[in-house]
Amino acid sequence: MWYLEIKHFCPRTPVILVGCQLDLRYADLEAVNRARRPLARPIKPSDILPPESGREVAKELGIPYYETSVFDQFGIKDIFDNAIRAALISRRHLQFWKSHLRRVQKPLLQAPFLPPKAPPPLIKIPECPPNNRDGPRQLLESPLCADVMFILQDHIHIFAHKIYLSTSSSKFYDLFQMDISDESQCLVVTERQGRDHLMRTLSLDTEEDADVLHTLSPCSLRASKSDGTLKMMSFSGKHRRTKLSLASWSKAFYSIHKETVTNPVTATPASMTVVKMDYSIQLGPFSAVLRFLYTGELDEREKDLMKIAQIAEILEIFDLRMMVENIMNKEAFMNQEITKAFYVRKANRIKECLAKDTFTDVIFRLDDGTINAHKPLLISSCDWMAALFGGSFLESANNEVSFPNTSRACLQAVLEYLYTNQLCPMADLDPLELIALANRLCLPRLVALTEQYAVSELVKASKEGQDTDGEVLTYLELAQFHNANQLAAWCLHHICTHYNSVCANYRKEIKSKSAENQEYFEKHRWPPVWYLKEEDHYQRVRKEREKEDVVHSKHHSRRRWCFWSTSAVVV
């Protein structure tokens, strides 16, 4: 557009054609348009010209062509150097007798710009879903699959789950580990000697303890006097059998036995462990203790903090006792650390129960074996499991669930994640199988953790010199099919940045991919096609110029006048 006007008014001025903003060829145009001014015209892919278009225009006008990018600091020196050279070449025609201009013959060639490799996409792990904390609380309020019932003051029934209580309190763990398989057997407290002594023991504190309690400050909590031993008692007559005395073991419990009880949620009969509590334990404080055992948290607005502390002391729940003391000392902010430590210990105990099959109530049948698990933990941490065991499915009434086409290592990893919210991969774990199962169970965070594990294993193998291109090609479409989008994006990046080597070794596999993937390969391959064309053109022109220089040097006579110095190499 401007060339004719320039030649009309400045006929002897040398001209150079420059292509600007070279970085737009490989940039993300959507991000670039978002960063531009609101009223600026958006850049379209059709607006970006290939290098051959610039060369064609330069050839038509008979001028040199260069490309530059201020963003990448490429070509800026080439522009200024060749602008100077163009001026010197133009002056050489007018002042041909000046020998120092004889060395400047042609404009310099510009090597093509190789765009940098795109960084690999990062695997982002989403935060823990809020239902991981709310699930246990909701399970306590709606006790689906409950296996223990507490009786308070002979008429109040509270349903709970052994696995939650046992992994949060060693006292409950020992209680539920007692052998009460015989339904006719009932563990009760021993008879008190005299009615006065019986009435006195209806309270959690004896007279001696009550005297001590009045002397303590509101923020000091006494230690539990339970020695943790079980005493054997013998009876004669029709009551002749051996019993365990719970009174000497813990003052919180009165009796424990097995009984068939109707579940309040499903209205179906189920065998439960019935624990009758001491008469002095009230509903409010005991409910707060149960909420802590399920969630690890204590509401600062609880009214009966001292009663909660007394129950926690008798049940040897020392974390809860410390939280009450912090609240009473107006140091409730310290309870957050106690909650974190509580979850760490609880996770370790849950893993131990899973390994030892303690308190399990469901069996998963797999292709290579069986795994015992706990319905309450699965229900509170997975909506899919909650629907399975709480809905109208056959598995809700059965204690066996079949998982076809699933290995033991894969389901073990899923269970440990649901129990501890962490991925603990085994040596024989197949990441793709775990991703497929996690996607089926609607666990996006587990999918992300498995993606991170798969990428780390591939990177590790690649650093050790192993060929991972074939494995990446296998991962790609399976990851896309099972909604592992981050792993699929990483596989696409790996294939594109190693496109030449992948095509050389796995040409059939590349051609077998979907049309969308092949289009992505061609668009994002590195080095890009335009660079390869420019590199071929640059090498060809450079060789031609070298041949011309050789021919030019041969035509020059080697005879010089005695006062001539040897001329420099023509550039």
Kindly name the structural category: alpha/beta
- Tally of individual helices: 24
Largest sheet: 5 strands, mixed
Radius of gyration: 40 Å
Q: What integer is the average pLDDT?
A: 83
Shape: elongated
Strand order of the largest sheet: 4-3-9-8-5
Helix content: 40-55%
Q: Strand share of the residues?
A: 5-15%
How widely separated are the two ends?
Answer: 32 Å
SSE blueprint and pairings:
Elements: H1 3-9, E1 17-19, H2 29-35, H3 51-61, E2 65-67, H4 76-94, H5 131-141, E3 148-152, E4 156-160, H6 162-168, H7 170-176, E5 187-188, H8 195-200, H9 207-215, E6 231-233, E7 243-245, E8 253-262, E9 269-277, H10 283-295, H11 305-314, H12 318-328, H13 335-356, E10 362-366, E11 369-373, H14 375-381, H15 383-390, E12 400-402, H16 408-420, H17 431-440, H18 444-463, H19 469-481, H20 485-497, H21 499-505, H22 507-511, H23 515-524, H24 529-555
Parallel strand pairs: 1-2, 3-9, 10-12
Antiparallel strand pairs: 3-4, 5-8, 6-7, 8-9, 10-11
Helix pairs in contact: 5-10, 5-14, 6-7, 10-11, 11-12, 12-13, 14-15, 16-17, 17-18, 19-20, 20-23
